[in-house]
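fyi for ur records
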Amino acid sequence: MMSGQENQNTQIFGRKIFFISATFTLNTNVILRLMDQEYEVYKIDDFRQLRSILTLNPDSIVFINADSTNTPNTWYNLISNFENDPAFEKVDFGVFESKLKKPEKERFTSSLKLKAGFYSLEKTFGEIVGELLGKLEELKAKGIRQFVRYSCANNKACEAYFVNGNMMYKMQFIDISSIGVGLLIPQKYAPIARINYVIQGLTLVLGSKQLKVNAKIHTIKALPTGILAVLIYTPDTTDNFRKYLRTYICESLQKELMNSIISLPWDKTDYTVNFGSEEKTSASPENMDKASDEAKEAETSDKTQDDSQKNESTSQEQPEKTDETSTEEVKADEDEKTEQKDESPSTEEPHKETEPEDESKLQSE
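which gave:
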C-alpha cells in the first residue's frame, strides 16, 4: 500500500512507465514517441531487476515484450505473480507481442488483468500508439505536472548563468524540463527576480553541452537561501532545443534509476514454474502441450510393454520348442538305430547246413 504522501506525489508528478526487454523496433516506434509526448519512460533490459524497481516505485506501469528473452509461459507466470501480490497491487501491466499463437493470446487476455492493455504489433504503429496514449490517459500516467522534470540540484555538472552588460549572473539549478527551468537566484540579484522579466541568452550548462535560450520568469518565491524562480522558455524556442532536453532528461533519469538499484538484490524467482493461480483448462496451451506429451509417453510405454510381452512370450515358447524337437530327434535316432540293427548282417558266421555227401561215395566207403 502507498502512503498518502506517495499517492499525492503520483497525482502531481505522474507514474513511471517501464518497458521490459524492448526491441529496437519498440524503442524507435513506441518509446521515443512516448518521450516526445512527455511520459516518464524507462527501459529495463533484465526482468530480474523489476521486483526491486517496483518496490521503490509501487505505482508504476509496466509493459512486457512477450516476443523476447523469455518464453510466453514464463512472461505469463511473471505477470500473474506480480498481479496477485498485494505489495504490487498499484502496478498496472501491459503486453506487446507479434508472435504469440491464438491460444497463447487468449490465455494472456482472459486470465491476466493487463490494465495497461494488450497490443499486437501486427497493427500499424500509428494505431498502436493511438490506443496506447488513450490507455495511458485513462491510467493517469502524466498526473498534473504534464512535463517530465529532472531534479539536478545536486548535479555539479549542471549550471545556469547569463551576462548582462559587464555582469555575469550565476544561478543554481533546481530542476529542468522541456518547457522551463527552476533556478535559485542569489539575494544579491534580487532586482532581476521579477515576474515576467525575460532573461535574454540564458546559458544552460548540461555536462559538456551548453545551450542558450530566452526565458521569462513565471513565478518567484523567497527562501532563506535565495529566491526560487520558475522560468518558462519563450515561444521562439526551437524544437531541436526541446528535443535535446527531453533526451537529456530521460537519459539522466535512467542513469539515476539504475544507480538506485545497483546494490539491491535481483529477483531469483523461477518464473518457468506455474504458481497455481490460474485455473487450468483443457484448452490452455500448457495443458494441450502436457496432454500431447502424456499421450506420447503412454504410446511409448504401451509399445515398450507390448515389445516386452512379445519377447517374454518368445523366450517362453522357444525352450518348449527346443525340448520337443530334442525328444523327437532322440526318438527318431533310436528308431533309426533299431532299423539299422535289423538290416545289418550279423557279426556271427551264419549256420551252414551240411550238404549230404554223395551217396555213391558213402556206399563205396
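Confidence is low (pLDDT under 50) at residues 277-292, 313-332, 336-365. thats all i got for now
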